[in-house]
Amino acid sequence: MKTQRTLLVICALGYATSTMIKKSITEFFEAQGVANWTVDTIGLTMAKDRLDTADLIVSSLGLNQDEYKVPVLNGVPLISGIGRDAVLQEILDNVKRLDG
Fold it and tell me: Are 8 and 56 in contact, with CB atoms under 8 Å apart?
């Protein structure tokens, strides 16, 4: 079992939107006691080089799951607030499944 995992937050440029999503996830992980996950942000054009290290992707861009080897989740609710709790639960469910 991999001891340290990576959740990659992808937005258009890798700055504001992904930083907001990262903050929500990081705070949620702290509250849930998830300690073995690193949350990184990146822009879409630079993400290709980082996909091999990602265990889970959260994005604001509507990425096509079929193009990625790891789960891709919609991060827009973490910005809008609509459906926020459901997305955080979906992230946690994936974290638990991946941690086995």
Answer: yes
- For residue 55, what are the CA distances in angstroms to 16, 19, 39, 80? 22, 18, 10, 24
Dihedral sign of CA atoms 14, 20, 21, 22 in order: positive
Going by their DSSP bridges, the two strands 72-74 and 5-11 should be labelled as unpaired
Position 2 scores a pLDDT of 56
Residue carrying the six token digits 């879409």: 44
Give me the pLDDT at residue 3, please. Answer: 82
Average pLDDT for consecutive 10-residue bins of the chain (100 residues)? 86 93 98 96 93 95 94 97 97 95
* Phi, psi at 62, each rounded to 5°: 70, 45
User: What SS3 state is found at 43?
Assistant: strand
Structure tokens at 19: 């930083």
